[in-house]
Specification:
mainly alpha, Glycerol uptake facilitator protein
């Protein structure tokens, strides 16, 4: 496995989570109790960072930054199990590192546990829908230029923050990392397994749907090119 690929996935996921957690802290401090305003600030920062990270890192590693994306790439025949396992491992490690970085930047205790309860049928359905939407977006733009995928993913996550009840985590590594932060972006550790299961279901559903959509010729077909993310 190329060390540069693993380093890119580690760094990218760390910066993504540092943005999610850090912008949540900043937004909560500045919004003066206005939760909608705090969520808007959190959304804009996360979407902007996703666009930048995918644009910069897609040529290096594909910019998965998400074990669900890596799982779909594996099932889509884009990588070996060993490569997928290595990438998922560094994504989770990077996510934890990003949480620690955000805490350090805002002079918060480095080691924390989330206390925000996020559970219930609607929340779990939301995570499945959010991850389905994200992976379908990636699969549908993978044969286009990296900048198209970057913009589409940023917009999908930005929309997901607001149209899902869970605010669209859509990423197992991010979910685990957010359980280690008792901040605006946090989640109680006990709620993580159901989130991850819902994310896996959404990712698999997106792969099945895309295989069906992409099975035969349509009115237009994107030109063949390098698959950016998967």
């Amino acid at each position: 496995m190329n060390a540069r690929v693993l380093a890119a996935e580690f760094l990218g996921t760390a910066l993504l989570v540092a943005t999610v957690v850090g912008s949540g802290v900043m937004a909560a401090r500045l919004a003066d109790g206005n939760v909608a305003l705090a969520l808007l600030g959190n959304t804009l920062a996360t979407a902007a960072m996703l666009f930048v990270l995918i644009t910069v890192l897609a040529p290096v590693s594909g910019a998965h930054l998400n074990p669900a994306v890596t799982l779909v790439a594996l099932l889509h025949g884009r990588m070996t199990p060993a490569t997928a396992a290595a990438m998922a491992t560094v994504q989770i490690a990077g996510a934890w590192g990003g949480t620690l970085l955000a805490h350090a930047m805002f002079t918060l205790p480095l080691l924390q546990m989330g206390t925000t309860a996020r559970s219930g049928a609607g929340i779990w359905l939301s995570e499945a829908v959010a991850t389905f939407f994200l992976l379908l977006t990636i699969l549908g733009t993978a044969r286009r230029a990296d900048i198209v995928t970057a913009a589409a993913v940023a917009l999908a996550i930005g929309a997901g923050y607001w149209f899902t009840a869970s605010t669209s985590f859509a990423n197992p590594a991010v979910t685990v990392a957010r359980s280690l932060s008792d901040t605006f972006a946090g989640i109680a550790p006990g709620d993580v397994p159901a989130f991850v299961a819902a994310q896996a279901a959404g990712a698999l559903g997106a792969l099945g749907a895309w295989r069906w959509f992409d099975r035969g010729p349509g009115p237009t077909k994107p030109s063949a090119g390098r698959d950016a993310m998967i």
